[in-house]
Design goal:
By secondary structure, the protein is an alpha+beta fold. 23% of the residues lie in helices and 35% in strands. The strands form 2 sheets. It has a 3-stranded mixed beta sheet with strand order 3-4-5. The chain has a two-stranded antiparallel ribbon with strand order 1-2.
Length: 105
């Protein structure tokens, strides 16, 4: 089951696009829009995974530039989704967030 998380232009983006693993139920909890920088979301049955989205904050990088960064924390239920599948999904999500043009190609 694909759950929409927005899109780039006219291209819709779905959680299932990131990696087709462990898809009984995925959810997103976004408290970043309320000023919360980082939090861990609670899984409620029948969810397998929940992605907590924190707010943007400035961060000084190694090259001394300042960039806006966002914290994402994924919680998963190991009874439904094994850790390897959850890690694979989160790595795919990270890849797409760091390189959003790959979603369009």
């Amino acid at each position: 089951r694909a759950i929409g998380v927005g899109g780039f232009g006219s291209y819709p983006v779905y959680l299932s696009d990131f990696a087709p693993v462990c898809l009984p139920e995925h959810r997103i909890s976004n408290l970043g829009m309320m000023g919360i920088k980082s939090f861990s979301a609670v899984i409620n049955p029948p969810q397998a995974c929940i992605l907590a989205v924190g707010g943007n904050r400035p961060k000084v990088m190694e090259d001394h530039s300042i960039r806006q960064v966002t914290t994402f924390i994924m919680s998963s239920d190991a009874r439904v989704c094994d850790d390897e599948a959850a890690i694979k999904w989160l790595n795919s999500f990270k890849l797409f967030m760091e390189n959003p043009r790959t979603l369009i190609n």
